[in-house]
Amino acid sequence: MATRDRNGTASIDSVSLAIIEQLQEDGRRPYAAIGKAVGLSEAAVRQRVQKLLDQGVMQIVAVTDPLTVGFRRQAMVGINVEGDLDPVADALTTMEEVEYVVMTAGSFDLIIEIVCEDDDHLLQMINKRIRTLPGVRSTESFVYLKLRKQTYTWGTR
Fold first, then answer.
1. Residues ≥6 apart with Cβ < 8 Å to 66
2. Which of 4, 15, 36, 48 is the most buried (most CB within 10 A)?
C-alpha cells in the first residue's frame, strides 16, 4: 500500500510497486493477470490500484503519438521570470497545450513542454500567450525535430 509521511511524500510497499510496474508495461493488463504476477487476488489488486489512483500516486492514461493525432510541433521552452515563479507557473498549467511545467535551478526558472498543431500555433503560444504573462522576462524555445525515446517506466526502478 501507499502511505504518506508528514511532508506528503508517498511511501509505497513492494507489492504496490510491482503492480505499478505491471501497469507500466501494459495499462490494460487484467487485474487477474496482475494478481497472478504479484501474488494477490484480483479483488486485492483492484483495491490497491484504486487506492493508488485516489492518492494521486499514479494515473492510468492513453499515451498518444502527437504526430499521428494532428499535433505536428512540439517544443520545450525555457522561461526566465522576474519575481515570484508561482503565478507564472500557475498560469502555464491552465494552458491546454502545455504538457508539463517544471520549476528549475539553472539557466531557466521554468521549463515547459508544449504540443501544438503547427509552427503558427507554436508562434502564437510563445508570442501571444507565454511572453505576455506578467513576470515573464524571456523565453528560449527548443523545437523537437525527432523524438527518439519516451518512456514511463521510471516509477519503479
1. 72, 74, 115
2. 48
Write down how long the chain is.
Answer: 157
Residue 157 has pLDDT above 70, yes or no: no
How confident is the model at residue 119, as a pLDDT?
Answer: 93
Tell me the chain's radius of gyration from C-alpha atoms: 19
- Are the C-beta atoms of 81 and 139 separated by less than 8 Å? no
Nearest to 121 by CA among 93, 83, 95: 95
**What's the DSSP call for residue 29?**
-
> What average pLDDT does this structure show over 67-85?
89
The answer to whether 143 and 122 are in contact (CB under 8 A) is yes
* Grid cell 511545467 in the structure block, residue: 101
Q: How far is 107 from 88, CA to CA, in rounded Å?
A: 17
Q: What is the dihedral of CA 47, 49, 26, 5, to 10 degrees?
A: -150
